[in-house]
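Sequence of Energy transducer TonB (Flagellimonas oceani).
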Amino acid sequence: MEPKKNPQLDLKRNSLLYFFVGMTLVLLMAYLALEWKTYYKADSWDVSQNVDEDLTENATIVKIKLPDPPKPEIQTPPKIEIAEDDEKVEETVIKSDEVNQETEIAKVEDVVVAEDDIPEEIPFVLIENAPVFPGCENEKTEKDKRACFQSQMLKHIRKNFQYPEMAQEMGLEGRVSVIFTVQTDGSIGNIRLRGPHESLESEAARIISKLPRLTPGKQRGTAVKVPYSIPITFKLN
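Predicted 3D structure, token representation.
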């Protein structure tokens, strides 16, 4: 069966050729447009020819006379006057303090011996003879007496311990740090407390106030004040 259209009349047959011819023409026209040059017509007169020569002014030269520089001042050297001699001063002879054969030696009875400088208060861990708790006098060594002191302190606290009712109702617990001083007569004084609540501190102070009279601590045979610290723990079951 033959096609109805004539293949010689098909427009798409030479479309690629037409495209390249069109592109060539467009590029040629763009090149001519970019390379096209125009020139202004030459003027018939020159601007520089209209300048009047009489308008040129001559610069006036002004001469300014500068002042002369100041002359340096010449300082006159000070006049030296010779003072008269001062009055004669007698020189004092400093005698030597070195001992010689003529120096008298003081007698032994005349020499004053200074007293021992013993502090008024010595901590428990540094004192020579620590305070003695009643019932610990028979301990032989100082170490045993210290251990007995601490043991009796714990027994005293457990024996007299009473948990404050208000602290139980409020659910208060904690540790109260207690510091007290064994006086030179064996009594207890200067009680200092620090705890989580006032009710617990009051109970700790009551327990310490019930301590019996102790044997005071001694340093070189002299009774001195001895501070001692111990914690008291309050804990609900």
